[in-house]
Specification:
about 260 residues; alpha+beta; Lipocalin; 2 domains; four-stranded antiparallel beta sheet; about 35% strand
Length: about 260
Amino acid sequence: MRRSMAVRRASVTVCAGVGLLLAALSARPATAQGFGYAAIAVSPSTLWSGAEKGTTTLASVENGALQYCQAKGAKDCKVYSAVNSCVALATAATPVPNPFGVGSGPTREGAAAQALAECTKGGGINCVVNLAPCGSDDVRFASPLPLPPGGKPGSVDPALVGLWALNVNGGIWVWQISANGTDTSHSEATDGTLPQAGTFTANNGKYTLHSIATQWDDLGTYTMQGTTAMVMTGKLGTGTWYRIAADPVYGGPASGPASKR
């Protein structure tokens, strides 16, 4: 996230958001009530993009992604969509026209892996995933990103590995820390904070964070309070994160091919 991972916000109840965040991290099949749609739109010439998801109609979700892309001034936006699954967009770390990749699959991680492979195949260098909506994502919040590749195994204090939440105005921030030295976070609050993903190190009470999604770097200190809370002090202040799970839960199979419009 662009804001410090340690920033303090007004308190809300973490437990109320646990079900929401696990659903957001998961790519689950549609409910009995209908289908879930996900779409991205990307301009090959500018790499401006947009994403949308929902349960109304495939056409409306595709149109939403297209409008987000075109709102940035792009004239050549292409739309890719998926039904009851996920779709992802990957671009080079330093965006240049044309090299990008799109993938789809029943899980966010699978769609992202395919997008990264397609981006690299197309000539992209150090490709990163910057959009990864799923049809089952909560429409109130920006879709989270999957854990990125890379990182340094063994660079993270084992006590920090897992899924954490921070109370903020209007909801919670969700932070996933991986043992391989990568992390991802997203907001389940009405603050408009963008998802981030990047590399993370933490040892001996000190941490560093480098986001490859939002061009944000942070560093500071952390103190464990038992096994279920950690107090972190970074660039923008101090906050207490509460453990939600040792490992995130990902959803089961979904179906439906991706399509391009």
